Amino acid sequence: SCWSLNPLCASLPVYVSSGHSNVQEVMLGAGVPNSRLHVDLHAVDTVTNFTTMTAEFEKQRYEHILVVTSGYHARRSATVGLLTLGSRGIMTSTLSVPSTRYANGSRNESGMRVARDAARAFMWALTGID
Questions:
Q1: Is 40 helix (H, G, I), strand (E, B) or coil?
Q2: What 3-state class would DSSP assign to 67?
Q3: If we measure between CA atoms, which residue out of 40, 42, 95 comes closest to residue 64?
Q4: Between 82 and which of 27, 40, 86, 125 could a Cys-Cys bridge form, CB atoms 3.0 to 4.6 Å apart?
Q5: Quick one: 65 exposed, middle or buried, by C-beta within 10 A (0-12, 13-18, 19+)?
Q6: Is 20:43 a contact under the CB 8 Å cutoff?
Q7: Model's pTM, two decimal places?
């Protein structure tokens, strides 16, 4: 894994925002050191994945966040990250990883989902309310 082979990875904090209770076990199994792992289980959807983590990223004074997500979810995550974190001066880059899970056999989320979450993220950026 990156964390055992690359000294830069070994020094980076890893934040995971998910509604899945087994995410810590999965990340530890992937080789992420527990000392670097920060898990937030408050999120229930993509927008709250970002909005619940923004204050922590601001507190840590992060300037750039790498968002890792499935290829299926990358476009929506990139859009929401740009609007939420970008509104607070934090740049985002998105890395998509292969996934065998696709909704309805599609390889990309619908434009409607992206637009819906973009609207929510934009309103949060303006008001701080989701």
A1: strand
A2: strand
A3: 95
A4: 86
A5: middle
A6: no
A7: 0.84
Q: Tokens 């998509």 sit at which residue?
A: 96
Could you report how far apart the first and last alpha carbons of the chain are, in Å?
36
**Cα–Cα dist 24/39, whole Å:** 7
40 DSSP β-pair partners: 17
Written as tens digits, the pLDDT of the chain (130 aa) is 565 656 666 678 889 888 778 888 888 888 888 888 899 888 889 999 999 999 999 999 999 998 888 888 899 999 999 999 999 999 999 888 877 666 556 677 889 999 999 999 999 999 999 8
The answer to whether the CB of 35 falls within 8 A of the CB of 59 is: no
Distance, in Å, from the CA atom of 108 to the CA atom of 50, rounded to the nearest integer, reads 20
> How does DSSP assign 79-127, residue by residue?
HHHHHHTGGGT-EEEEEEE--S--GGG-SS--HHHHHHHHHHHHHHHHH
